[in-house]
C-alpha cells in the first residue's frame, strides 16, 4: 500500500486505528535497526505486516533485505527476520525513504554521553529531522530510545514543527520506552512487561496506546504525558543503580564487621519491604552506568544520591583489585609479580557484549600494577580492546597463573576443574558464584570475605 493510501493514526477513532494497523493499512517506520531496534521492527512486522526499517549503516540495510539478521544472541530473531522479509512484511532502507513511506515513525537510536557526562541526543535530533522531511498530517512519532526528561516536549515536537510542513496539533508525538534486555528482546517486546505510553497530548497517547496494545500481550500503562513516561524509564534504571550501590557499600563492611554481608542481605530480604540487590565487582551494560546522568547532569545539588551511587559502583573494580592485592600480600607476595586470570569480559552472563564492562577497569588496574593479565570469555571473539592475553576456558588449567578474578560468571565457567591447577591460587570472587571450599585455594568473596 502506498503512503498516500494509508490510514493516519493520530486523531482517528481507536477501533478504526486498530483495524487499520492489523490490516497493514498503517505503514510503520522503525528508525535504528540495532540490537533493540531490529527486534522491535520484527515485532511490529509480525503483527501488522507493513514495516520499513531504517538505518544509517548501508551494510545493515543490505543484510536485512537479504533476510539476514546482523543482531546476534537474540533467540528466534534470525528465523523471524528471514520469514518477515520473505513475506514482504519487513524491508529496510534509509531514514528519508522510510519517512516518506511511514505513517507511524518509531525512533530507537542511541543516546550517548558527551564530555562531563552530558547527555548527547544529537543522533535522535538527526533522525527526527529526517522524519520531519516526510511527515504528514495524522502521522504519529514514537520515541523509544532513552532520553532526558522533557526531550519529547522541548526537542522532538518543536523540531518536527520547524522542519516539516505540518503544524503542531496535526500530528502526534509519544514516548514509549523500550523495556527490554539483551538476550530476550523479542520476549520482552511481545509482553514480558506492560508497555508504558505517554503522549504530548491526549490524542497522541490514545493513538500510541491503541497500536502497542496489539504488540504487547501484557497491555499498556498510560501515564500523564510524555515527560512522565521518559522519567519512568530512567527511574527504573536509577533504582537499580542506587540499590546495587547500597549493596556494594554494605559489602565493604564485610571485613570490619567480620560477617558474611551476602548472608545478611539475603536474610534481610525475607522481610517483605526489603529488596537489596547483590554486591559485585562493578556495574556494566548499555543502561545502568549511563541513565543516572540523564537525570543528574547539572543537578549536583538536587541529585547527590545519584552521583554517589555512580561513584560507589564505578569504584568497585578498583576495590576488587585492592582486595586481590591484599590477598597476595597476606601470602607474602606482590601483585605486580604475579600472573592473574580474569574470568568474564562481557558485562553480564550469557550476553556477548562488553559495554561498560567492569572487566576493563579491573584489567587496567592489574596491568598498571605490573601484573601479567590473562582473560577468558567464551562469548567474546575480539579481545583487542583489553590489556590482557586471551586464553580459552579449556586451556586455563594448563597456564601458569597465580590468581583469578571472577567478574562475569558465564555458565561455561561451571566446568572449571579447580583441583587441576598445579598450585594453590589467590581467588577474588566478584560475584559470589564460586564454591571452592574443598580446594586449597585462598578465596575472598566480595560481600562474604573468607567463608
Short synopsis of the structure:
The chain is of the alpha/beta class and 451 residues long. It is built from 16 helices and 16 strands. The chain folds into two domains: 3-234, NAD(P)-binding Rossmann-like Domain (Rossmann fold, 3-Layer(aba) Sandwich); 256-451, NAD(P)-binding Rossmann-like Domain (Rossmann fold), CATH 3.40.50.
What structural category arises from helix and sheet content?
A: alpha/beta
Relevant CATH superfamily of the largest domain: NAD(P)-binding Rossmann-like Domain
Number of strands: 16
Shape, per Cα inertia axes:
elongated
What profile does the largest beta sheet have? 8 strands, mixed
As for the CATH topology of the largest domain, it is Rossmann fold
CATH class category of the largest domain: Alpha Beta
Strand order of the largest sheet: 3-2-1-4-7-8-9-10
Task: Tally the structural domains.
Answer: 2
What is the beta-strand fraction? 5-15%
Unreliable spans are none
**Share of helical residues:** 25-40%
- The number of helices is 16
What key phrases describe this protein's structure?
single chain; 451 residues; alpha/beta; Rossmann fold; 2 domains; 8-stranded mixed β-sheet; 6-stranded parallel β-sheet; 16 helices; elongated
Structural commentary:
The chain folds into two domains: about 5-235, 3-Layer(aba) Sandwich (Rossmann fold), CATH 3.40.50; about 255-450, 3-Layer(aba) Sandwich (Rossmann fold). By secondary structure, it is an alpha/beta fold. The protein has 16 helices and 16 strands. Helix 2 crosses helix 8 (about 185-190) and helix 6 packs across helix 7 (about 150-165). The longest helix is centred in the middle third of the chain and has 26 residues, at about 225-250. The strands form three sheets. The chain has an eight-stranded mixed β-sheet, with helices on both faces. A six-stranded parallel β-sheet has the order 13-12-11-14-15-16, covered by helices on one side. It has helices spanning about 15-20, 35-50, 60-65, 75-85, 95-100, 120-135, 150-165, 185-190, 200-210, 225-250, 255, 260-270, 290-295, 305-315, 315-330, 360-370; strands at about 30, 50-55, 90-95, 105, 110-115, 120, 140-145, 170-175, 195-200, 220, 340-345, 370-375, 390, 405, 425-430, 440-445.
Amino acid at each position: 500500500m502506498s503512503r498516500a493510501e494509508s490510514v493516519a493514526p493520530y486523531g482517528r477513532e481507536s477501533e478504526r486505528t486498530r483495524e487499520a494497523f492489523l490490516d497493514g493499512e498503517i505503514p510503520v517506520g522503525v528508525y535504528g535497526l540495532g540490537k533493540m531496534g531490529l527486534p522491535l521492527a520484527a515485532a511490529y512486522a509480525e503483527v501488522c505486516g507493513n514495516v520499513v526499517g531504517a538505518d544509517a549503516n548501508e551494510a545493515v540495510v543490505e543484510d536485512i533485505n537479504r533476510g539476514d539478521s546482523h543482531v546476534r544472541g537474540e533467540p528466534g530473531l534470525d528465523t523471524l527476520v528471514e520469514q518477515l522479509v520473505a513475506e514482504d512484511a519487513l524491508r529496510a532502507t534509509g531514514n528519508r525513504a522510510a519517512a516518506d513511506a511511514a505513517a507511524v515513525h518509531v525512533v530507537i537510536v542511541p543516546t550517548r554521553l558527551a564530555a562531563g557526562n552530558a547527555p548527547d541526543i544529537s543522533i535522535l535530533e538527526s533522525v527526527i529531522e529526517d522524519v520531519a522531511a516526510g511527515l504528514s498530517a495524522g502521522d504519529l512519532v514514537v520515541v523509544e530510545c532513552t532520553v532526558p526528561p522533557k526531550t519529547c516536549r522541548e526537542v522532538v515536537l518543536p523540531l518536527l514543527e520547524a522542519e516539516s510542513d505540518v503544524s503542531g496539533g496535526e500530528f502526534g508525538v509519544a514516548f514509549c520506552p523500550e523495556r527490554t534486555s539483551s538476550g530476550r528482546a523479542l520476549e520482552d517486546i511481545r509482553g514480558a512487561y506492560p508497555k508504558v505510553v505517554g503522549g504530548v497530548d491526549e490524542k497522541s497517547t490514545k493513538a500510541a496506546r491503541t497500536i502497542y496494545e496489539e504488540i504487547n500481550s501484557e497491555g499498556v500503562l498510560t501515564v500523564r504525558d510524555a515527560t512522565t513516561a521518559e522519567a519512568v524509564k530512567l527511574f527504573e534504571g536509577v533504582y537499580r543503580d542506587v540499590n546495587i550501590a547500597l549493596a556494594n557499600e554494605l559489602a565493604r563492611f564485610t571485613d570490619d564487621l567480620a560477617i558474611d554481608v551476602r548472608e545478611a542481605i539475603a536474610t534481610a530480604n525475607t522481610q517483605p519491604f526489603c529488596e537489596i540487590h547483590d554486591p559485585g565487582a562493578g556495574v556494566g551494560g548499555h543502561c545502568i552506568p549511563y541513565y543516572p546522568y540523564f537525570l543528574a547532569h547539572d543537578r549536583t545539588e538536587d541529585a547527590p544520591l545519584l552521583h554517589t551511587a555512580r561513584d560507589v559502583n564505578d569504584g568497585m573494580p578498583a576495590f576488587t583489585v585492592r582486595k586481590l592485592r591484599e590477598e597476595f600480600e597476606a601470602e607474602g607476595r606482590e601483585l605486580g609479580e604475579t600472573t592473574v586470570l580474569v574470568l568474564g569480559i562481557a558485562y553480564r552472563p550469557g550476553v556477548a557484549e562488553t559495554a561498560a564492562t567492569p572487566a576493563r577497569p579491573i584489567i587496567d588496574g592489574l596491568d598498571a600494577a605490573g601484573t601479567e593479565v590473562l582473560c577468558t570469555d567464551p562469548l567474546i571473539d575480539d579481545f583487542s580492546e583489553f590489556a590482557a592475553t586471551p586464553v580459552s576456558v579449556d586451556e586455563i588449567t594448563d597456564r601458569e597463573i597465580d590468581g583469578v578474578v571472577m567478574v562475569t560468571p558465564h555458565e561455561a565457567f561451571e566446568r572449571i576443574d579447580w583441583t587441576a591447577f598445579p598450585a594453590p591460587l589467590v581467588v577474588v570472587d566478584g560475584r559470589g558464584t564460586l564454591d571452592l571450599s574443598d580446594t586449597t585455594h585462598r578465596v575472598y568473596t566480595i560481600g562474604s570475605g573468607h567463608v
